[in-house]
Structure formats: structure tokens, C-alpha cells
Amino acid sequence: MSRVIVVGSGIAGLIAALEISRKHSVTLVTKAELQDSNTRYAQGGIAAAMTDDDSVAEHVADTLRAGADLNCREAVEILCSEGPQRIRDLIRLGVEFDRKNGELARGMEAAHSHARVLHAGGDATGNAIELALITAVRQANITVLEHTFAKEILIEGGRVVGLEVLDHDHGFRQLDASSVVLASGGAGQLYTHTTNPKVATGDGVAIALRAGAQVADVEFYQFHPTALAVGGNFLISEAVRGDGAVLRDVTGRRFMFDVHPGGELAPRDVVSRGIAMQMARQDGKPVLLDATALGAEFLAERFPTIDRACKAYGMDWGHNPIPVTPAAHYWMGGIRTDVWGRTSLPGLFAVGETACTGVHGANRLASNSLLESLVFAWRCAEVVVADSPAAESLGCGQEVEIAAAPLEEEISAEPVNRLRLQELMWKSVGIFRNGEGLAEAADELAGWRAAGRSVPELEDANLLTLARVMVAAASARKESRGAHYRPDYTETSRAFAHQLAFAKEVPVLC
Fold it and tell me: Where in the numbering of this chain does the Fumarate reductase/succinate dehydrogenase flavoprotein-like C-terminal domain appear (predicted)?
């Protein structure tokens, strides 16, 4: 029986661990507690064509349209066609989705042609899924290592053979494995404003880069249009707008129809830019999300988590509009994989937000993220169990390779400061990017160094690696497409497809 290491305890990691454990010995590594992941905070739900008035073909079309012609169609068709069965598997594992008149309740979200977003606990879908899967993992024959940081991938003879980790009890140590599955989520902590939890520092992508794996489409970071404009950037689900809430400027005027015919239900990248431009016009003041027409009673029942959060901040959103701002939310890019989770390194797999299958293109369709993790984690488990080799063909379309400067370790370089890095990324590599700002960001990042032996220092090193790669990729993409918008190159160009990014000679951190 082979030993497999799974890194990450969101939906992708938990599903992969559960399915692989049916045939192999599995060790699940997570740097915080088991329930600490992006999945836990997912509010809106999970999209799938589950009813007769909807179809897989329409879900595919919506996903492709949102992705701005950069999706891998094969991955999209797999996502949408296998999704319904995977939803049924979640129900079998104990996830209790909300129902109406005995049928699965469905919500409407931006850029969907049908109401197909399933939810649980009103707006606590991710938490319901996380708790059900954790229960299943606890009951399975899986070794769980909490508070254990994945530091480096171990390679011998060109193949992954394990993982170096740091934990409170044993310090640095090595875990041997026949395969490693990275499912460690995104990197929202690159930015000042993010809906992601503190653990989202992009560790999986960074250690894969250092091991020599291909990464792709890292310039595409999605900003959620509506986070509460208070400390913590609490997410206000897109489902609120799907149910009828509207966006207003400080004078009370609806402004999104000036930006896009879809108004508040335009694709996320469009709504985020529309809000950002409106905020600039009103001297940085947040815009207002007006859900008062839905009524306080409905809001408390349909969105209990958001309702409690608003009250905790002293806001009565049933009677008054609430201030919102865009915030970094989801990374379309990541470790490049095929549609089975295989990477360019034998023995290394990646699933969920850590991976880039090309399924989301340049802009993820709302509520496709949990579905992606579910579908591709299941597929990944199949090939891990079969001990399948590294993928021979990855992703779709032509590629352009770009390189970022390696981490410099000279004593003369300035130690990276996370707050400064986040501010720099928000300013120069956020909702709007341009050549001058990206060049200045590259210069500043090149003057920083990162190394250390504590978890926060290692996280900072990973963020610096990813920031440099993202700046290089955004500089190389001289067009506007999906979540990547450059006022100095406003048109979308056929000359740009997928971009592979790599960091030359990045040292192993010690």
C-alpha cells in the first residue's frame, strides 16, 4: 500500500483524501486546524444543472462566456457534465442542501442563464460541506496532521518522493510519499482587501514553483464585487444581488446599468470594475448595496450568516443600504494540470484553487469554484489510485512562457514586509493594472528578500515569490481580458492565450 500526502483541508483536499484512502495510506497535512479553509467561508453555493428546465450545455455556455474565451473547453464540459453526480455524492456524504417543497432550492447568481446555485443553511453552504466532509475524514483511515506547514516538495530522480514540513511538535521533518496532492487553496493574502482567511498565502503554488512545476494564468485574480467596507472585508454573497439587491452610489442612484446591460448581475470582473470606477468618482467612498426591498425577515432567513455579521457591525441591512467594496476573492491561475489533476512533475498532483485546469478561463463563473474542487478532486483520486504518470499534455491553447526574478537572499536586500507587499499588489496588480505601475512594482519587489524558519516568515517568502511571478505575467499580457484589465491595452487580443510562468533558480528556503 502506497503512502499519499494530501496538503489542504478544503473541499478539494478532503474529497481527494477520502477517495484515495480507499486504496492507499493517506496523510492529510493542514497548516491550521482541519476546518480552516476557503471552503468554510463559501456562502453563495455550488452551481450545477440538476433540473429539467436547465441543461449541461447551458451551464457550459455560461462558463465559457464568463471566462472571456480563455477556458479549456474539455475541462468545462467535464465540470458541467460530471457536476450533478458529484452533488449527489455530497448528499450521500451527509451534506444537507436547502430544499423548497421537497426539491433542491436553487438560487440565481450573476452571469448564469438559470437559477442553478444550490445552497445549504441559507448562506452557509461551504461550512455545511466542510463539516460533513470533516466528519467523513475523521471516520476514515486517514492520518491528519494539523498545524503542519508544507515547506518544500522533495524530489529524487525527477520524481516527487515526499514533503518537508514544519510542525509545532517536531520542528522540520520529512514525510515520505509515493505521491503528493496539493489542495492548499488560493493566495488572497497577497492583497490588502480580501475575502480569504489568513491561511490563504498561496503556499502550494509557491512550493510547486520551487520544485520546477509549471504554473499558468497567474495574472488572473478575481475580485469579488461586494465585501463589507469594514475591517475584515466580510463577504456579501452574490446571491444577495441574485435575489434582487441593487448597487447605488452615495446619492442613491443605481449606476451599474451605465456600465453593462446586465446591471448588478453582469460578470464579476465587470461589476468589480464598475464599483471601483464609481468609488474613484466619489473620492474613494464605498458604494451601497441596497437589499431593503427584500425585507428584513427574508434576509434573516435566506442569509442568516450575513445577517448576523451586519448586526455585529451595527448595520440594519433590512432597512438601510450597507457599504461595500471589491476584495480579492479567487485565483483562476495556479499549478498547471491536466483534467485529472496531474502536473508536469511525476508524482505531483494539484486540485481546487491551487490548480489551473483552464476551466475558469480569465474569469470564474459564480459558484463554479466548489464544483471545480469537487469534480477534479474526484478525478484526481482515480489516477492517484492507479499510480498514473505525469501528464504528457497540459491545459489548452498555445502558451507564452514568462519568468519572474528569483528570490534574492543577499543581506543588503530589504526584508519583505507583508503589509507593504499587500498595499503594493492592491495598488499595482489589483482591479486595474498598467505598464508603468507594473514596472514600478517589479522594481520594488526585486529589492526585497525573504527567508526564515517560522511559519509567518515562510508564508511571506511564498507571497513574495507569487507576487513577482504575478507581476511578470501581468506585464507580459498586453491586453484586457476577464479579471486582467489594463487601461493602457483595453482591447482583447487573439495574440494572447495561456501564459506559463516560472521563477528561475528560486532557492529552497532554509
Answer: 418-492
- Residues 318 and 361 reside in one and the same domain: no
93: how many CB neighbours lie within 10 A of its CB? Answer: 15
In this structure, is residue 121 part of a structural domain?
A: yes
Residue 346 φ/ψ, nearest 5 degrees: -60, 130
Residue numbers of the domain that contains 101: 3-185+332-385
Q: Is the dihedral of CA 438, 442, 444, 448 positive or negative?
A: positive
Q: Residue 181, Cβ neighbours under 10 Å: how many?
A: 33
> What is the edge-to-edge ordering of all strands in the sheet holding 46-47?
46-47, 117-118, 106-107
441: DSSP letter: H
pLDDT in tens, 410-431: 555 789 999 999 999 999 999 9
Say if residues 172 and 114 touch (Cβ distance below 8 Å). Answer: no
C-alpha cell at 485: 484589465
Does residue 270 lie within any of the structural domains? yes
**E strand or H helix at 273:** helix 268-281
pTM: 0.94
Q: Examine residue 362 and state whether it is found in any structural domain, yes or no.
A: yes
Same domain, residue pair 320 and 244: yes
Average pLDDT for 161-188: 95
Single out the residue of 228, 317, 226, 295 nearest to residue 264, CA to CA.
Answer: 226
DSSP 254: B
Tell me the three cell numbers of residue 171: 520542528
- CA-CA-CA-CA torsion for 386, 387, 391, 395, nearest 10 degrees? 50
Which residues are marked as active site? Answer: 268
- The interaxial angle of helices 125-139 and 369-385, nearest 10 deg, is 20
| Percentage of residues of the chain with pLDDT beyond 70 | 94
Residue in this structure with the C-alpha cell 461586494, named with its chain if needed: 226
The arrangement of strands across the sheet holding 25-29 comes to: 142-145, 25-29, 3-7, 179-182, 348-350
